[in-house]
Amino acid sequence: MKTQSHASISVWRQIPKGVWALGFVSLLMDVSSEMIHSLLPLFMVSVLGVTPLTIGLIEGVAEATALIVKVFSGVISDYLGKRKTLALIGYGLGAMTKPLFAIAGGAGMVLSARLLDRIGKGVRGAPRDALVADITPAEIRGAAFGLRQSLDTVGAFLGPLLAVGLMLLWHDDFRAVFWVAVLPGMMAVLVLAFGVSEPPPIAKSLRRNPLQRENLKRLSAAYWQVVAVGAVFTLARFSEAFLVLRAQQTGIAIAWTPLVMVAMNVVYALAAYPFGKISDNYSHRALLTYGLLVLILADVLLAAATDWLLLIAGIACWGLHMGMTQGLLAKLVADTSPKDLLGTAYGFFNLVSGCAMLFASGLAGMLWQYYGAASTFYMGAVFCGLTLLLLWGLLKPIAQK
After folding, report:
1. Which has the closest alpha carbon to 334: 134, 162, 161?
2. Is the Cβ–Cβ distance between 123 and 69 less than 8 Å?
3. What's the pTM?
4. Does 74 or 102 have the greater pLDDT score?
5. Sign of the torsion angle spanned by Cα atoms 193, 194, 197, 202
């Protein structure tokens, strides 16, 4: 036991300070974002009169936009050899869009705010992940990505907790809560500006256009296998807005529904670092398989949920699968990509996942509206099965560890 404890402490100490700082930047921005997003589906339905299908389309377009923009920001970060500047632009744009939710008078304004917010996320996402890979030794990348994801997820449950408290205090005043969300977003930008340094960029004479054919050919078959599995994974994991709507269907009061996201993100935060650390020394394919099986269980529980017990069980399984898989997929991209093309690699990974997210969220909203909530979650379970088939057919070359 002493040896395991000492090893655990050593790994924590080896993780660079910049990764910790990036984790706290993510934490603060997630507090800001989740204060809004945990209430946004209910705000759209109860205040703006938006249908579930429209919510699915808005969420799908917004998330897909974020993931697609990552291609361009990733390529630019590789070409310039600088990640932090793009991350600052992305986090700054995210912070600036928060007031738009507070003044929204219809679905059009919400869509505009979501698009601008997700563009900011897209601009910062690939450079940030590449920066984590740049400053972390390869042998502890799983732990580093797990730590950043864990801190990010702490923010994702603190945000809804604050939203619940303020909704109770201010008698369901959505717009007042949205205004408060502006503050942690601004703090995130300040922490990034003053708390994170990046390694010296590659010499300008050695930098080449990442989109040149000879550079793209350096992205290996193993990398594209990870991209394929990640895309089908996204089909199985549609927008979390539907988790909030499912909570409302079980009779939970509007002010308390953000606790659904709190429950999910508590489990996610607790699982992300341990499973990230495990992934440094365990079969990647096996961990992804276990994560998919947990997601299937989550879908079945949520489809069957008629009371809060089944609902919370399904939400907890959803959070557990996120902790088991999301940091691992980020690690696999880094492990299968050339160091000077990390931004581009994350960009293409997220482009393909973005298209899958758009399709999955639109389909989820359509099934919900015309066939009922259970059909949405059963669809997710079917896509999980397809992902398992793809995983065991394609990931063999990078499964051993």
Report:
1. 134
2. yes
3. 0.68
4. 102
5. positive
17's tokens? 């300070």
Confidence of residue 27 (pLDDT cuts 50, 70, 90): very high
Q: How far is the C-alpha of 190 from the C-alpha of 161, rounded, in Å?
A: 23
Write the DSSP symbol of residue 257.
Answer: T
Estimate to the nearest angstrom the gap between the alpha carbon of 119 and the chain centroid.
14
Higher-confidence residue of 277 and 393: namely 277
Among 388, 374, 364, smallest CA distance to 299 is for: 374
Residues 116/100, Cβ–Cβ less than 8 Å: yes
Q: State the Cα–Cα distance between residues 382 and 328, nearest whole angstrom.
A: 22
Report residue 328 as tokens: 């691992």
233, 352 contact by CB (below 8 A) = no
Q: How far is it, in rounded angstroms, from Cα 117 to Cα 69?
A: 12
Burial profile 126-140: b = 16 or more Cβ within 10 angstroms, e = fewer: bbbbbbbbbbbeeeb
Question: Residues in the chain, how many?
Answer: 401
The C-alpha angle with vertex 228 and arms to 226 and 232, in degrees rounded to 5, equals 115
| Paired tokens of 146 | 């797990």
Supply the DSSP string of 290-330, one letter for each residue: HHHHHHHHHHHHHHH--SHHHHHHHHHHHHHHHHHHHHHHH
Note the pLDDT of residue 179.
93
- Tokens 């304004």 locate to 109
Residue 399, pLDDT score: 46
Does the pLDDT at position 96 exceed 70?
A: yes
Domains belonging to the chain, first-starting first, are: 16-195+213-399 (1.20.1250.20)
How many other CB atoms are there within 10 angstroms of residue 40's CB atom?
Answer: 26
Give the residue-averaged pLDDT of 22-51: 85
